[in-house]
Amino acid sequence: VFLHPEVLKVSGDLIKDGHYRQAILDAYIHFVQKVKEKSGVSAENGVPIMQQAFSPKNPVLKISDNPDEQGGTLNLFVGGVMMFRNMPAHFITDHSDPHKAIEILTFASLLFRMLDEA
Question: pLDDT tens digit string along 31-60?
């Protein structure tokens, strides 16, 4: 499997067992925690952590010297957290399609790889 090791660590067994919603939720919760740890940002929840860590004007974690690319990174990270961590955490969401679940976890994997490079 080509997923980032951090995704596999928290979600690998859940994927194998068909618990896709929990696999997605756990991967994104873990991602937020890793951003918080790497950045040292003290915000308590996902979106403010991303906003502080990847701010285009004053990033704690820099992806690019280009403010547009840094802003794009911020938008990807915030979007991932809002859509795939917040939604399953606050609502019963249908993640019964294994193909879609793997694609969502692949996006988490990309975010982890970008975080590794920050």
Answer: 999 999 999 998 878 899 999 999 999 999
